[in-house]
Protein backbone atom coordinates (compact mmCIF):
# COMPACT_ATOMS: atom_id res chain seq x y z
CA UNK A 1 0.00 0.00 0.00
CA UNK A 2 2.85 2.41 0.89
CA UNK A 3 4.57 1.73 -2.44
CA UNK A 4 1.29 2.36 -4.28
CA UNK A 5 0.77 5.68 -2.49
CA UNK A 6 4.35 6.74 -3.25
CA UNK A 7 3.92 5.84 -6.93
CA UNK A 8 0.67 7.78 -7.09
CA UNK A 9 2.28 10.83 -5.46
CA UNK A 10 5.11 10.75 -8.01
CA UNK A 11 2.69 10.43 -10.90
CA UNK A 12 0.54 13.25 -9.58
CA UNK A 13 3.61 15.43 -9.09
CA UNK A 14 4.63 14.84 -12.70
CA UNK A 15 1.15 15.57 -13.99
CA UNK A 16 0.59 18.65 -11.85
CA UNK A 17 4.07 20.09 -12.27
CA UNK A 18 4.63 20.11 -8.53
CA UNK A 19 7.19 22.59 -7.28
CA UNK A 20 10.57 20.92 -6.81
CA UNK A 21 9.96 18.22 -9.44
CA UNK A 22 11.96 18.85 -12.60
CA UNK A 23 11.23 16.93 -15.79
CA UNK A 24 14.25 16.06 -17.92
CA UNK A 25 14.62 14.18 -21.17
CA UNK A 26 14.30 10.54 -20.05
CA UNK A 27 14.19 11.13 -16.31
CA UNK A 28 12.74 13.26 -13.53
CA UNK A 29 14.49 15.07 -10.64
CA UNK A 30 13.12 15.55 -7.14
CA UNK A 31 14.89 18.65 -5.75
CA UNK A 32 12.75 19.02 -2.62
CA UNK A 33 15.36 17.64 -0.18
CA UNK A 34 18.52 19.76 -0.48
CA UNK A 35 21.49 18.58 1.57
CA UNK A 36 22.65 20.81 4.41
CA UNK A 37 26.32 20.25 3.55
CA UNK A 38 26.44 22.08 0.23
CA UNK A 39 28.83 25.01 -0.08
CA UNK A 40 29.47 27.38 -2.97
CA UNK A 41 32.43 26.47 -5.15
CA UNK A 42 33.51 30.10 -5.30
CA UNK A 43 35.03 31.21 -1.99
CA UNK A 44 37.79 33.65 -2.98
CA UNK A 45 38.05 36.82 -5.06
CA UNK A 46 41.57 37.55 -6.34
CA UNK A 47 42.62 41.00 -7.54
CA UNK A 48 45.45 41.35 -10.08
CA UNK A 49 47.13 43.90 -12.27
CA UNK A 50 48.11 43.05 -15.83
CA UNK A 51 51.53 44.78 -15.93
CA UNK A 52 50.82 45.84 -19.52
CA UNK A 53 48.52 47.98 -21.66
CA UNK A 54 44.97 46.96 -22.49
CA UNK A 55 45.53 45.50 -25.97
CA UNK A 56 48.45 43.34 -24.86
CA UNK A 57 46.62 42.34 -21.67
CA UNK A 58 43.53 41.29 -23.61
CA UNK A 59 45.63 39.27 -26.06
CA UNK A 60 47.50 37.57 -23.21
CA UNK A 61 44.38 36.74 -21.23
CA UNK A 62 42.60 35.27 -24.25
CA UNK A 63 45.59 33.18 -25.35
CA UNK A 64 46.13 29.53 -24.43
CA UNK A 65 48.30 29.99 -21.35
CA UNK A 66 46.57 32.26 -18.82
CA UNK A 67 43.07 33.64 -18.30
CA UNK A 68 40.92 35.60 -15.87
CA UNK A 69 37.22 36.04 -15.47
CA UNK A 70 37.23 39.83 -15.85
CA UNK A 71 39.45 42.55 -17.29
CA UNK A 72 38.90 46.21 -16.40
CA UNK A 73 40.58 48.86 -18.59
CA UNK A 74 42.52 51.68 -16.98
CA UNK A 75 39.95 54.09 -18.40
CA UNK A 76 36.76 52.04 -18.91
CA UNK A 77 34.62 53.30 -21.81
CA UNK A 78 31.22 54.53 -20.72
CA UNK A 79 28.03 53.20 -22.32
CA UNK A 80 24.70 54.67 -21.23
CA UNK A 81 26.36 56.02 -18.12
CA UNK A 82 27.97 52.72 -17.10
CA UNK A 83 31.62 51.61 -17.39
CA UNK A 84 32.20 48.64 -19.66
CA UNK A 85 34.07 45.64 -18.22
CA UNK A 86 35.33 42.69 -20.29
CA UNK A 87 34.22 39.23 -19.15
CA UNK A 88 36.67 36.71 -20.58
CA UNK A 89 35.64 33.54 -18.72
CA UNK A 90 32.14 32.65 -17.42
CA UNK A 91 32.07 32.51 -13.63
CA UNK A 92 31.07 28.85 -13.64
CA UNK A 93 34.28 28.02 -15.52
CA UNK A 94 37.77 27.76 -14.04
CA UNK A 95 40.22 30.48 -15.13
CA UNK A 96 44.00 30.14 -14.84
CA UNK A 97 44.84 33.35 -12.99
CA UNK A 98 46.19 32.45 -9.54
CA UNK A 99 48.64 29.74 -10.61
CA UNK A 100 50.49 27.88 -7.88
CA UNK A 101 48.82 29.36 -4.83
CA UNK A 102 47.74 28.95 -1.21
CA UNK A 103 45.23 30.69 1.03
CA UNK A 104 43.84 29.76 4.43
CA UNK A 105 44.87 26.14 4.19
CA UNK A 106 43.71 25.63 0.60
CA UNK A 107 45.80 25.14 -2.51
CA UNK A 108 44.67 25.29 -6.16
CA UNK A 109 43.00 28.66 -5.61
CA UNK A 110 41.99 28.72 -9.28
CA UNK A 111 39.45 26.01 -8.45
CA UNK A 112 37.64 28.12 -5.87
CA UNK A 113 38.09 31.70 -7.02
CA UNK A 114 37.14 34.44 -9.44
CA UNK A 115 39.96 36.55 -10.83
CA UNK A 116 39.72 40.22 -11.78
CA UNK A 117 42.54 41.77 -13.80
CA UNK A 118 43.09 45.53 -13.79
CA UNK A 119 44.98 47.14 -16.67
CA UNK A 120 47.98 48.66 -14.91
CA UNK A 121 51.67 48.93 -15.77
CA UNK A 122 52.71 47.45 -12.45
CA UNK A 123 56.15 48.49 -11.26
CA UNK A 124 59.32 49.87 -12.78
CA UNK A 125 62.66 49.76 -10.98
CA UNK A 126 64.79 52.88 -10.78
CA UNK A 127 67.80 53.18 -8.52
CA UNK A 128 67.11 49.68 -7.24
CA UNK A 129 63.68 50.73 -5.94
CA UNK A 130 60.31 49.52 -7.25
CA UNK A 131 57.94 52.29 -8.26
CA UNK A 132 54.34 51.15 -8.72
CA UNK A 133 51.75 52.68 -11.06
CA UNK A 134 48.70 54.30 -9.44
CA UNK A 135 45.21 53.03 -10.28
CA UNK A 136 42.88 55.41 -12.10
CA UNK A 137 39.80 56.52 -10.10
CA UNK A 138 37.47 55.52 -12.95
CA UNK A 139 38.89 52.02 -12.94
CA UNK A 140 38.31 51.62 -9.21
CA UNK A 141 34.80 53.03 -9.63
CA UNK A 142 34.12 50.28 -12.19
CA UNK A 143 35.64 47.59 -9.97
CA UNK A 144 33.52 48.41 -6.92
CA UNK A 145 30.06 47.38 -8.23
CA UNK A 146 31.50 44.29 -9.94
CA UNK A 147 33.27 43.15 -6.78
CA UNK A 148 30.20 43.86 -4.65
CA UNK A 149 28.06 41.81 -7.01
CA UNK A 150 30.45 38.84 -6.94
CA UNK A 151 30.81 38.98 -3.15
CA UNK A 152 27.04 39.08 -2.67
CA UNK A 153 26.29 36.23 -5.06
CA UNK A 154 28.85 33.86 -3.55
CA UNK A 155 28.81 35.19 0.03
CA UNK A 156 32.58 35.68 -0.05
CA UNK A 157 34.03 36.50 3.36
CA UNK A 158 36.00 39.77 3.67
CA UNK A 159 39.24 37.93 4.46
CA UNK A 160 38.86 35.99 1.21
CA UNK A 161 39.06 39.08 -0.99
CA UNK A 162 42.78 38.96 -1.61
CA UNK A 163 45.69 40.19 -3.66
CA UNK A 164 47.46 37.90 -6.08
CA UNK A 165 50.51 38.56 -3.90
CA UNK A 166 48.63 37.24 -0.85
CA UNK A 167 48.08 33.82 -2.42
CA UNK A 168 51.44 33.66 -4.25
CA UNK A 169 53.86 35.91 -2.32
CA UNK A 170 56.98 34.21 -3.62
CA UNK A 171 56.08 34.99 -7.24
CA UNK A 172 53.80 38.01 -7.36
CA UNK A 173 53.52 41.64 -6.20
CA UNK A 174 50.15 42.55 -7.70
CA UNK A 175 48.13 44.59 -7.25
CA UNK A 176 50.84 46.29 -5.18
CA UNK A 177 50.91 48.89 -2.41
CA UNK A 178 49.03 51.58 -4.36
CA UNK A 179 45.88 49.51 -4.68
CA UNK A 180 43.20 51.17 -2.47
CA UNK A 181 42.33 48.29 -0.17
CA UNK A 182 41.16 50.57 2.62
CA UNK A 183 38.82 52.46 0.25
CA UNK A 184 37.34 49.19 -0.96
CA UNK A 185 36.90 47.88 2.59
CA UNK A 186 34.87 50.99 3.36
CA UNK A 187 32.59 49.88 0.50
CA UNK A 188 32.22 46.40 1.99
CA UNK A 189 34.89 44.83 -0.22
CA UNK A 190 37.59 42.94 1.63
CA UNK A 191 39.11 43.03 5.10
CA UNK A 192 40.65 45.94 6.96
CA UNK A 193 41.78 46.26 10.59
CA UNK A 194 40.10 48.64 13.02
CA UNK A 195 42.51 51.48 13.82
CA UNK A 196 41.60 51.45 17.52
CA UNK A 197 42.45 47.76 17.81
CA UNK A 198 45.74 48.25 15.97
CA UNK A 199 46.60 50.97 18.50
CA UNK A 200 45.58 48.60 21.32
CA UNK A 201 47.92 45.87 20.11
CA UNK A 202 50.69 48.35 19.35
CA UNK A 203 50.47 49.23 23.05
CA UNK A 204 52.65 52.33 22.92
CA UNK A 205 55.50 50.78 20.95
CA UNK A 206 57.12 52.70 18.11
CA UNK A 207 55.54 51.48 14.82
CA UNK A 208 58.85 50.34 13.31
CA UNK A 209 60.28 48.79 16.44
CA UNK A 210 61.68 45.38 15.43
CA UNK A 211 59.85 42.26 16.55
CA UNK A 212 60.70 38.59 16.29
CA UNK A 213 60.21 37.44 12.69
CA UNK A 214 59.03 33.98 13.73
CA UNK A 215 56.35 35.49 15.98
CA UNK A 216 55.03 37.70 13.17
CA UNK A 217 55.09 34.85 10.66
CA UNK A 218 53.06 32.72 13.07
CA UNK A 219 50.35 35.42 13.05
CA UNK A 220 50.44 35.68 9.26
CA UNK A 221 50.18 31.91 8.94
CA UNK A 222 47.17 31.89 11.25
CA UNK A 223 45.53 34.62 9.18
CA UNK A 224 45.96 32.71 5.91
CA UNK A 225 49.41 33.09 4.37
CA UNK A 226 51.58 30.13 3.45
CA UNK A 227 54.45 29.85 5.94
CA UNK A 228 56.58 26.71 6.08
CA UNK A 229 59.44 25.68 8.43
CA UNK A 230 61.97 25.41 5.59
CA UNK A 231 61.52 28.93 4.22
CA UNK A 232 64.65 30.97 3.60
CA UNK A 233 65.06 34.47 5.02
CA UNK A 234 64.28 35.89 1.59
CA UNK A 235 61.07 33.84 1.35
CA UNK A 236 59.98 34.93 4.82
CA UNK A 237 60.57 38.54 3.79
CA UNK A 238 58.36 38.07 0.72
CA UNK A 239 55.45 36.91 2.87
CA UNK A 240 55.80 39.90 5.20
CA UNK A 241 56.06 42.25 2.19
CA UNK A 242 52.86 40.85 0.69
CA UNK A 243 51.01 41.41 3.95
CA UNK A 244 52.39 44.94 4.29
CA UNK A 245 51.53 45.89 0.71
CA UNK A 246 47.94 44.91 1.47
CA UNK A 247 47.47 46.21 5.01
CA UNK A 248 50.34 48.68 5.69
CA UNK A 249 51.21 50.13 2.26
CA UNK A 250 53.08 53.14 3.67
CA UNK A 251 56.05 50.86 4.36
CA UNK A 252 56.42 47.43 2.81
CA UNK A 253 60.07 46.60 3.37
CA UNK A 254 59.42 43.05 4.56
CA UNK A 255 60.87 43.77 8.00
CA UNK A 256 59.04 42.39 11.02
CA UNK A 257 58.02 45.39 13.11
CA UNK A 258 55.56 46.27 15.85
CA UNK A 259 52.96 47.94 13.64
CA UNK A 260 52.82 45.00 11.22
CA UNK A 261 52.41 42.67 14.18
CA UNK A 262 49.65 44.84 15.67
CA UNK A 263 47.79 44.89 12.35
CA UNK A 264 47.98 41.10 12.13
CA UNK A 265 46.68 40.76 15.69
CA UNK A 266 43.79 43.12 14.94
CA UNK A 267 42.87 41.23 11.77
CA UNK A 268 42.88 37.88 13.56
CA UNK A 269 40.68 39.30 16.28
CA UNK A 270 38.22 40.67 13.73
CA UNK A 271 38.12 37.87 11.15
CA UNK A 272 39.48 34.78 12.85
CA UNK A 273 42.06 32.23 11.81
CA UNK A 274 42.33 30.65 8.41
From TrEMBL:
Give residue ranges for domain N-acetylmuramoyl-L-alanine amidase. Answer: 30-176
Task: Give the matching Gene3D superfamilies.
Answer: 6.20.370.150, Peptidoglycan recognition protein-like (3.40.80.10), PGBD-like superfamily/PGBD (1.10.101.10)
Per its record, what are the GO molecular function terms? Answer: N-acetylmuramoyl-L-alanine amidase activity
Top EC class, one word: hydrolase
GO cellular component terms, semicolon-separated:
outer membrane
Q: Which InterPro entries does this one have?
A: Amidase/PGRP_sf, Amidase_domain, NAMLAA_amidase_2, PGBD-like_sf, PGBDSf
Claim: Transferase is one of the keywords in the record: no
- Pfam families assigned: Amidase_2
Q: Does this entry carry the keyword Hydrolase?
A: yes
Which reactions is this enzyme annotated as catalysing?
Hydrolyzes the link between N-acetylmuramoyl residues and L-amino acid residues in certain cell-wall glycopeptides
Question: Which domain of life does the protein's organism represent?
Answer: Bacteria
Q: What is its EC number?
A: 3.5.1.28
SUPFAM superfamilies (alphabetical): N-acetylmuramoyl-L-alanine amidase-like, PGBD-like
According to its UniProt entry, one GO biological process term is: peptidoglycan catabolic process
Its keywords, alphabetically, are: Cell wall biogenesis/degradation, Hydrolase
**Protein family per UniProt:** Belongs to the N-acetylmuramoyl-L-alanine amidase 2 family.
Protein name listed in UniProt:
N-acetylmuramoyl-L-alanine amidase
Naturally occurring in which organism (per UniProt): Trabulsiella guamensis ATCC 49490
